[in-house]
Amino acid sequence: MTTDNDWVRVERRIKAPIGKVWAMWTDPNLFRKWYGPNGMTVPAAEMDVVVGGRRKVCMQMQTPERTMTMWFVGEYKEIDAPRRLVYTESMADEAGNIVSPQGMPEAHPDVTEVIVELSESDGHTLMKMTHVGVPAGSAGAGGWAQAIDKLEALFAGARA
Question: How far is CA 4 from the centre of its chain?
């Protein structure tokens, strides 16, 4: 996959050491605390963070009318702890079978790629996240911005 197109990119300067930010991406219990747009929870996250390892994540939103559940699966492609993490992501059913993306344009790929790059500077972590296959300005981009806001909020006021 290439990052030459106008894909979702989020860059933040997070007031936390790089190891703590890395853990937020790689520890399923920590990941569940921030992932997903506002109003979504993550009732399940499985992560085998090794090259070739699998991941399976459930996002859920409850409204008075219904419960909406979305599953995602992927595979870890690159791991250079605590600096670089690359994994694929696909919509799936609860059993982990890849399904066509729901609510996305017809040309949306079934398999996308998330690239997380971290570096440290003055006690902060510089984080660049690119989601290849999800266009900038899309609902997916908005969801990522909200999720990263939640990630940042976990560190707000915390001692680094």
Answer: 20
Instruction: Report yes or no: 101 and 143 within 8 Å, Cβ to Cβ.
Output: no
What is the DSSP annotation of 51-82? TT-EEEEEEEEE-SS-EEEEEEEEEEEEEETT
Q: 18-26 and 139-155 helices cross at what angle (nearest 10)? A: 130
The CATH number for 7-155, chosen from 3.20.19.10, 3.90.1150.10, 3.40.50.300, 3.30.530.20, is 3.30.530.20
Q: How far apart are CA 114 and CA 47, in angstroms?
A: 14
Question: What does the pLDDT look like over 21-39, one tens digit per residue?
Answer: 999 999 999 999 999 999 9
Q: Which of 17-31, 70-84, 105-119, 122-136 has the lowest mean pLDDT?
A: 105-119
